[in-house]
Amino acid sequence: MKSHLIFLIALLFIYQINAQETLIGFTPENTQKQITLETKFDAQLSADNLEEWMKLMSARPHYVGTEFGEENAKWIANQFKSWGYDTRIDTYHVLFPYPKIRSLELTSPTQYTTKLTAVPVEGDPYTGQGDELLPSYNAFSIDGDVEAELVFVNYGIPKDYEELEKLGIDVKGKIVIAKYAGSWRGIKPKLAAEKGAIGCIIYSDPKDDGYVRGDVYPKGAFKNKTGVQRGSVMDMPTYPGDVLTPGYGATKNAKRLEIEDAPTITKIPVLPISYEDAQPLLAALDGAVAPTSWKGGLPITYHIGPGPAKVHLKLEFDWQLKPAHNVIATMKGIEFPDQWIMRGNHHDAWVHGAADPVSGMVALMEEARAVGELAKAGNKPKRTLVYCAWDAEEPGLIGSTEWVEDHKQELQKKVVAYINTDGNGRGFLGAGGSHSLQAMVGEVAQSVTDPQKGVSVHDRRMAVNLIRGGTDKFELYALGSGSDYTPFIQHAGIAALNLGFGGENAGGEYHTIYDTYSHYKRFKDPEFAYGVTLAKTAGRIVLRMANADVLPFEFKQWHSTIAMYLDQVIKSCETMRADVEKHNKLLDKNAFELAADPSKPFVQPQRKARIPHLNFTPLMNTLDVLKMTVEEFSSKDFTKLSKNQLVELNKMLMKSEHILTNETGLPRRSWYKHQIYAPGFYTGYGVKTLPGVREAIEQENWEEAQEQIMLLSGTLKNLDQHIKNMSAL
Amino acid sequence: MKSHLIFLIALLFIYQINAQETLIGFTPENTQKQITLETKFDAQLSADNLEEWMKLMSARPHYVGTEFGEENAKWIANQFKSWGYDTRIDTYHVLFPYPKIRSLELTSPTQYTTKLTAVPVEGDPYTGQGDELLPSYNAFSIDGDVEAELVFVNYGIPKDYEELEKLGIDVKGKIVIAKYAGSWRGIKPKLAAEKGAIGCIIYSDPKDDGYVRGDVYPKGAFKNKTGVQRGSVMDMPTYPGDVLTPGYGATKNAKRLEIEDAPTITKIPVLPISYEDAQPLLAALDGAVAPTSWKGGLPITYHIGPGPAKVHLKLEFDWQLKPAHNVIATMKGIEFPDQWIMRGNHHDAWVHGAADPVSGMVALMEEARAVGELAKAGNKPKRTLVYCAWDAEEPGLIGSTEWVEDHKQELQKKVVAYINTDGNGRGFLGAGGSHSLQAMVGEVAQSVTDPQKGVSVHDRRMAVNLIRGGTDKFELYALGSGSDYTPFIQHAGIAALNLGFGGENAGGEYHTIYDTYSHYKRFKDPEFAYGVTLAKTAGRIVLRMANADVLPFEFKQWHSTIAMYLDQVIKSCETMRADVEKHNKLLDKNAFELAADPSKPFVQPQRKARIPHLNFTPLMNTLDVLKMTVEEFSSKDFTKLSKNQLVELNKMLMKSEHILTNETGLPRRSWYKHQIYAPGFYTGYGVKTLPGVREAIEQENWEEAQEQIMLLSGTLKNLDQHIKNMSAL
């Protein structure tokens, strides 16, 4: 028996060596050290800390400019100090509107005054904090006092306006009412204003996060009839951050735009409301019945209008500069102090923000504490770690953006990668970011155990992908926007990741007074097990990047991803072409008119312009060459380089993401420099990959599309040369 | 100027000759006569008659056994007589249950007593007829008194029970509540009973035909909160018609089954309710939240249960024999009196039945009146016309079924085809039936003008097909069940068609007290223009079949349709095989368990059995041979045959549909003889083409599937020989 056991242990040992001797970027020897370090790291992590800190930090509302927010920042800073970090608070002075007047009434054909207030619920004392709770509003709505007929515009996204056009309905001079969801909220007033609307109401339909989804709070996790989602509506796809200081830090004495000149404040007033408040407004609409896909979950027939419902919307804000306190905690690397691994999460919330952002913040802090413990025990990182707790993320990624803008040159020189987290909960790993880091993240995901199922978080993710009809290939999603990675990757061209668990934590609390510890504890991650798992995952990524012999950038997976994006873009042209041909053929046959119900309004669709054939060959050829280049690069064993050569190689690897940017930026939004990833101009958070080319095609701007193809090809050629230079080492 | 005009007229004349000299089945000479006849026929039709007759016939409820129903039958008979038809009333004595006790209460955890009564509405005096309105119930529910926990089963169709199984929910000993729609209603209690449920409630969800679809009655056409759909739940997929006399006519002295032995009465009590009555029951459910696709439009979270909602359902019926009065009106053909073109529509209704069936009945009557006028003017049909107004269609196609069973042998000898109509409204031509008639129906559709758009009803249908992503090839849909064509085609093997207009007449009045003249006039076909168009369409088909030199059966389109069905069946096997392989692969990877949320109930799915490869080659070979045979047949010019040969050919053509039947019928339901078309055993009205083979595959009964392939191949070989015999003439 005993000899069998020894044999088994030996087998296990051999297996472990074999399985792990190839940790990406590590020599076999350093792999073993690193694995030992990670085991020690895991042992430090305590779910109790996460829970205790969440209670502390989400005890009261802490949006930017609040005293409690500042207290939180100071408390976070003190924590970091106690764990051995050099910690400072970098404060910026940023414009933040606080609502003074919020009034919305149905004035015709019946009268209804909206309540605009969510009710406290039993069992959740946080919801009973009265006036301290930030009133529900959309930050960076312009002031306004408008009265007009109402039009229901579904989600208020481009294809909804196409549908309205088909029905012959114009929103010019009207106030639109749009459902939350379907796009980032800021797109709704932006597009409504472009179409001539004079006001915009956004409401949460029960189909999207209310009773249709599940039981409502406090019985269940979903939105009760009084809940209202707050949120920023600044034009972030143009630029995020302080609206008065585009492209540079909002320091105390920075030069500022006049408020009326700030291009990212909305053009029309916007107000979010609950579904209890929305129902009388929607019920008072008449006109065409909404298309099936537009219909929500209220017990009414959804009509589009315009009118006879008429509403009066009045909004006035107190526009003040508020201090945004970013906590910056540094642990200097012992070998490469000028190579920084950055890690961040925001600390400000719309109200209590237990899930968003505190659940991510406490995981980051526990990770940092454990790293501090390791350092105290002599395991200091080779590279410098910078932990950040951002302020003013909610109103528009303001804290992080101002800081990145303010430190851009230094960051571009020193930062290896920025790893972001935000809200977190029970479920599956979601990881997005630079695809040169995909292989490393996949490797990390295989080494972290899912707390519910006992397999790796990688394997659980793959299982759910398979069940949903996908593949079992680990992939990073592409980053659009919606959290603090944006200034790093899309403005500064720094490799970035965004990590979080979720999928078993659905609810309707997002940006409402119901995002509390009480709600989180019941519905999101009761044991804080996924908080610990997030700390393990992000912590491993930080530690591997900090200690790797060769920085773990990998270009074969990067290449196949970019090739897939190009394929998508080419196919989208073909689809557009086929659609146009089909559409025009239907017009030739007069099919639209013949199929139309004469008792309903009908607008004969326009003939569509031919979709020209774009010349994609420069991109195809560049990608073909790149393929050979990355294959050669991947075949090298860099661990055998001399120390100096390794230093040189790592410096070059750090720059590889920046090569994918272009200093002139994207057309009409020069703040966005990255040529591979950007938030969509008309989707907001939703990513557009190869954005210059893709969006020109979507807007049918063929000349620009061809220019962008050439530009992107040039960018990719630069990377090709850069990788060749690295291979030559 | 004048010479130009003459030239134009000459051109027009030549064009007309050319365009129409090939009317299917007619010599060029007789084509011209027929077209002239059809022009005269059209000129006779008056929309005013349709409206006047609808008001008359739908003035009061007229379900089988009512005095008003009998009055209607007599009045219809007198009308036919006045138009020159030999008219009689054939009466059968059929079991019809009238509700004595209807009681449904929520007994726990809260109390609610359902109202079970729709309210009268302003502007519609018919809805105020009080006790004369037939109470809402499902005919051929068994009597019962049950109390149990409730389970929500979505539409209560097979895939819903698969979903319940995944969730570990059993309905054994429970009462199920299912939404109307998704299948024929009778499937719901049938399947519930098979799964062990002891009662079944069916309700109309507002998402399916209530406020979600559009404004409710009386503001709009859809179902208000009190409306209840009546309807039969007898097991029609086993056999329709009188439950006590399967396969033979329910004549006065016919031998009858005991009620307790009647296999088509439900096994458990069933009651339909309104959404007002359903809401408290559904709201009292707890347990798993229903899957997204199950959720309806009520302002609640849909839970599945079981319980804690408990309901008490008590039903008792008065089971009496009632007289069903079929009106049979004959106009003898002057050349071929023993070749009958049959035409029918039912006259009984659940309540007033303005749309269902009176809108179709009045179109049939106006058509018959016009044909009568033509006959009086000397244009008597060559073949015999038989116009039928069926009674007792609503409780289970009873009037027509008993009549067909009673006259089966004569009908099989004499009937060329049966053309059915039922409810009708504004919109697009829908035509289903024997595919040997497809070419002829398509030709007719091209010669009838749409009253709203001025193009042919064929072209309008094609336009809507194209807009919906289909092709512009005219196709008959395959007949399942749901109206009186069933006994003709599926039992007697007589070629049949079903015709109607619709698509711009949606509403929620079906089988409720709101299907009145007032509702019809506002929402269905205000000008009765589509009633006249239906008369034109069906009338042309009747007249062409009555007068054709060669009966207009065509087998090339028939063949390509059957070949497509075979292709579907073969592909369905491949899809099943791929699904099973994928499912088992997911099990191998333990993906179901890993992806499952441990806070929710989870049942590990079973490994699925391999899908064997069936040998379809006998069918493929037979269809290949048939292809050559029908091509040869189609290449012949039969108009050049001698008169005697023509008589012989037409006799053989009349038999061609019957050759597609098999006297032993389908497995487990021998009443259904047709081998190409049948209502699905678990879909009800929904058709299953090549039913013996297709349903054996769906039930994974591989031995039976292979047997049915051989059987069907034999049937098709018989047709092949039959067509060869015709070609040899």
TrEMBL record, chains A, B:
Gene3D superfamilies according to UniProt: 3.50.30.30, Transferrin receptor-like, dimerisation domain, Zn peptidases
Enzyme Commission (EC) number: 3.4.17.21
One Gene Ontology molecular-function label: metallocarboxypeptidase activity
The keyword Protease belongs to this UniProt entry's keyword annotation: yes
InterPro entries xrefs: PA_dom_sf, PA_domain, Peptidase_M28, Peptidase_M28B, TFR-like_dimer_dom, TFR-like_dimer_dom_sf
Domain Transferrin receptor-like dimerisation per the UniProt entry, residue ranges: 615-720
Database matches in SUPFAM superfamilies: PA domain, Transferrin receptor-like dimerisation domain, Zn-dependent exopeptidases
Alphabetical UniProt keywords: Carboxypeptidase, Hydrolase, Protease
PANTHER family named in the record: N-ACETYLATED-ALPHA-LINKED ACIDIC DIPEPTIDASE, VACUOLAR PROTEIN SORTING-ASSOCIATED PROTEIN 70
Family to which the UniProt record says this protein belongs: Belongs to the peptidase M28 family. M28B subfamily.
Name by which UniProt lists this protein: N-acetylated-alpha-linked acidic dipeptidase
Upper classification of the organism: Bacteria, Pseudomonadati, Bacteroidota, Flavobacteriia, Flavobacteriales
